[in-house]
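To whoever picks this up:

The parser on our side crashed when reading a file containing two proteins. I've narrowed it down to the boundary between the first structure block and the second sequence. Both blocks are reproduced below exactly, byte for byte. First block:
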Amino acid sequence: MDMQNILDLRLEKLIHLAKNYRLGVMIDCFNVFNANTITSWGTRYDYDWLLSSDPDYTPSTEGHDLLGIINPRQIRLGIRLIF
């Protein structure tokens, strides 16, 4: 398969609450550029029994099926207490 170009970012701000306590506020962004990277593909013989009677039938380009693709862009917010 081709190389995967995926960018994940994390930004965090620490706030001092007391002498021994800190509060962290963070934001994570996964797959920043929303790349449609293929994670797995393969060939399934006679998987589609409705069209298997046609010997020239292939379910996708060059006989390969797309089995997995990376998740779309996701954003996660979080906090943590450090003591």
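<<boundary where parser fails>>
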Amino acid sequence: MSSGHLTHATIHALDFLTKKLLPPDTSPLHQRTGRRGEEDAYFYLRRQGYIMVARNFRSPNRRGEIDLIAWDKDVVCFMEVKPAPLAT
């Protein structure tokens, strides 16, 4: 089992235990969706060979955050994760 698969399986096991042991998450649906999307993007990019540097990076001198920072060979990538538009 590769390291990425083990990490992903561990995260899902912890998610399962969280649902069983902790009170429910009362944050708004859009925040829960955003967190899940960022997590899915993180694991997808790792499987594609990106070297992950940071998640949810915030600078003390600037507002906002960068969702993911990663290396793709010799290129540093700054990524903002957005949900796909809903089909109409």
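After patching the parser it read the second block fine. The chain has one domain: 3-79. Residues 3-79 form one domain.
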